[in-house]
Amino acid sequence: MSTELIVPTLGESITEATVSKWLKNIGDNFEADEPLVEIETDKITVEVPAPHAGSLKEIKVSEGTDVEIGGILGILDESKGKKPTPKKTETKEEKVKEEVKEVKVETKSSPAKSSPSARKIAEENNIKLEDVTSSRSDGRINKEDVVSHLSSSNKTSTKKGEREEVIKMSKIRQTISKRLKEAQNTAAILTTFNEIDMSKVMEIRKSKNQEFQSRYEVKLGFMSFFVKAVVKSLQEYPAVNAEIKDENIIYKNHFDIGIAVGTEKGLVVPILKDADQLSFGEIETKIIDLSTKAKDGTLTMDDLTGGTFTISNGGVYGSMLSTPIINRPQSGILGMHNIQKRAVVVNDEIVIRPMMYVALSYDHRIIDGKESVGFLVKVKELLEDPSELVLGI
Fold first, then answer.
1. What is the distance between the alpha carbons of residues 180 and 296, in angstroms, rounded to a whole number?
2. Pair 229, 285 in one domain
């Protein structure tokens, strides 16, 4: 009996996907729910599981080919599934041996403890995943671990003598390119700048980090302060949290903050839902979780859906100043940058302070100059005197 393997629904805005890797060959057997093929959309990479036990009879869509949602990926033969082994009476000695065997098998490194992208790179470069060291506490191997292993082994996919390498753009990279260009062509983007004295935020982090870490099991970072400051500023300047739809302005009464994360495949923006209701500890925990999922390629559609405003931290890469592009259909994005000690004037005296340039890019169709500058000044004031953020008053 044959059945069709269908591309599942992956979200309202997603109409097609690309087959990035078949995990089974024609004729291979599989169990129910075992991953058969890896597909990539403009936002996420997912594995399509087997609806039942059987074997792969036919591949309808080859690797690197686009397929519409609901399209047929392959044909499955249900009759050729793995047959259950008849049970036999075991002696006490045989049972003990079998239990020991099972324990040994469980201790081996398994592909299930690795991300799809990690397995793909490992297979393409003939690398055994058990030889790769995980950088994570749970032992899961991600793409960065495999890439690091490749670098340390002095292996490269480029043949000697080749001067150029042509690689097809991924769905994610194609979508990033398209949306950034659409943002520039559609919105009237302007950028305003300011600088923030980070002294007090750094003092709080230094004095409270150990206590914070023991309570929440994560470090107290800068991002939680910025998220808190952004939310309060958005509440005061609602146009920055709004969007244009047709001839209407939609003002959002919720604060879902996108956190831009750079991955090997490109920039993704997972969403920190209802950020106004989160504590410092919850913000830091959720950001780490979303960043880890982004780098492992395990983000879900729910992680990427929505968003009313975005924060991008180019400072982690050493950027001193930039003009970020808004993430449509949002109307504003805040760019953070690296912190540098600079000479500034305080009370008519020249002092050395840790300073950060910040940039707000905004859609001038909906946000006026007064609102954009006021918003950024509010963020500056809240971070230079974070008592309002910490005490909640």
1. 24
2. yes
CATH code for the domain in which residue 328 is found:
3.30.559.10
**Pick the catalytic residue: 33, 66, 274, 368?**
368
Domain of 137 in residue numbering reads as 104-158
Residue closest to 275 by CA, chosen among 345, 204, 326, 224: 224
Task: Pull the structure tokens for residue 237.
Answer: 């300047």
Is residue 91, in this structure, part of any structural domain at all? no
Task: Mark whether 364 is an active-site residue.
Answer: yes
Whether 135 and 248 share a structural domain: no
Q: Is the same domain home to 149 and 30? A: no
Nearest CA to 254 out of 228, 237, 234 is that of: 234
84-87-92 Cα angle (round to 5): 140
368 part of the active site = yes
pTM, to two decimals: 0.67
| CATH code, 141 | 4.10.320.10
Q: Which two tokens stand for residue 277?
A: 């209701």
Q: What is the pLDDT along the chain (393 residues), one digit of tens a residue?
A: 788 898 888 765 677 788 888 999 998 999 888 889 988 876 677 888 888 898 998 998 888 888 888 889 999 988 655 444 444 445 545 554 454 444 333 333 344 467 666 776 677 666 778 888 887 666 778 766 776 776 665 444 455 567 787 777 766 677 778 878 888 888 899 999 999 999 999 999 999 999 999 999 999 999 999 999 999 999 999 999 999 988 899 999 999 999 998 877 777 889 999 999 999 999 999 999 998 888 887 888 788 888 999 999 999 889 999 999 998 889 999 999 999 999 999 999 999 999 999 999 999 999 999 999 999 999 999 999 998 888 764
Instruction: Give me the number of domains the chain comprises.
Output: 3
Take residue 254 and report the two structure tokens written for it.
């919720």
- For 6-27, what is the HEC assignment? ECCCCCCCCCEEEEEEECCCCC
| Of 33, 66, 254, 364, catalytic | 364
